[in-house]
Design brief:
The protein has helices spanning about 60-65, 90-95, 115-120, 130-135, 140-160, 175-185, 205-220, 230-235, 255-260, 260-270, 270-280, and strands at about 20-30, 35-45, 50-55, 75-80, 85, 100, 190-195, 225, 240-245, 250-255. It is of the alpha/beta class and about 280 residues long. The protein has a single domain (about 20-280), classed as Rossmann fold (3-Layer(aba) Sandwich), CATH 3.40.50.300. Strand 1 (about 20-30) and strand 2 form a beta hairpin. The radius of gyration is 19 Å and the shape is globular. Residues about 1-5 and about 125-135 have low confidence and may be disordered.
Length: about 280
């Protein structure tokens, strides 16, 4: 059963000559003798939700790690807003407006929800060491403005007002995933990379997370690259889907086109009947 209403998402309108927000061009990644990615290329349009699917070990997370510069491909280019970011350090990539969440929750469990979220904004802070140390002037003004933005926009959007002062480690799994999304949003991203944001969630939590992703995309205009195994969610909220298998791209298109691609059915979805069952067709 689909996690959200099974109505195909309408792709945002765009100008015919509009340049893609993100371009991956012939990406090759190797670990010793293992080719993790072999010539992967695709574009992400501004304002779209781009899903990446494929079997376990297909190279999906490797793609996100390459974009963030955690991994360094030995061949290929990554271009963001027309700028080649292939050789930029990770902190410079984050400052450009590329934020992400992780497959395994990466929060500071001994800190409060609010403090975890505020850490996401560190790349945009401009106060110096001295003003930050004595908490006066520019540092104080930045802190007040940041807290106001977080509380009025992010916490309100993700409906976590009731837990803002709680220690993250005491929260259930689903709420921790929501806090991690909030921290990524505090980075003021232009593009948001989400690595299995619904993994381990029950149906209600999955529906909530899908709704939050749609709100971030529709209301804030944030482009989303989403890795997800829940095919109901992929079909419902994605504008385009890239399919990987053994580190190579085997298909790209709308969710409907990909769901009917024989190579995708063979590599990932199983038989045609199984594919229709997974996708709610």
């Amino acid at each position: 059963m689909s996690a959200v209403a099974p109505v195909p998402r309408q792709a945002p309108s765009s100008q015919p000559k509009e340049e893609p927000l993100l371009v991956l061009d012939d990406i090759h990644l190797r670990f010793g003798g293992l080719n993790a990615l072999s010539g992967v290329s695709f574009n992400v349009k501004k304002g779209h939700i781009q899903a990446i699917i494929g079997p376990n070990g297909a190279g999906k997370t490797c793609i996100l790690n390459c974009i963030c510069r955690f991994y360094h491909p030995y061949r290929g280019r990554i271009v963001f807003e027309g700028q080649d970011i292939s050789n930029l350090p990770t902190h410079r990539v984050a400052a450009l407006g590329i934020a992400r969440s992780f497959q395994n929750i990466e929060l500071f469990r001994g800190m409060t929800v609010l403090d975890n979220i505020k850490l996401g904004h560190h790349v945009h802070m401009h106060s110096g060491f001295l003003s930050g140390g004595v908490y006066l002037g520019k540092a104080q003004r930045e802190e007040v403005a940041l807290r106001k933005e977080i509380e009025e926009r992010i916490i309100d959007l993700l409906e976590i007002e009731a837990i803002r002062k709680q220690v993250v480690g005491t929260l259930p799994y689903g709420l921790q995933k929501r806090v991690e999304l909030a921290r990524a949003l505090a980075m003021k991203p232009k593009i948001l990379l989400l690595d299995e944001p619904m993994a381990g969630m029950n149906l209600e939590e999955t529906e909530d997370m899908a709704r939050f992703i749609l709100d971030v995309n529709d209301e804030w205009g944030v482009t989303v690259v989403l890795i997800e195994h829940d095919m109901g969610v992929v079909m419902d909220i994605s504008d385009s889907v890239v399919v990987l298998d053994f580190g190579t791209k085997i298909a790209q298109g709308s969710p409907q086109e990909v769901s009917r691609n024989p190579h995708v059915i063979e590599a990932y979805l199983g038989s045609e009947a199984a594919a229709h069952s997974k996708l709610g067709l």
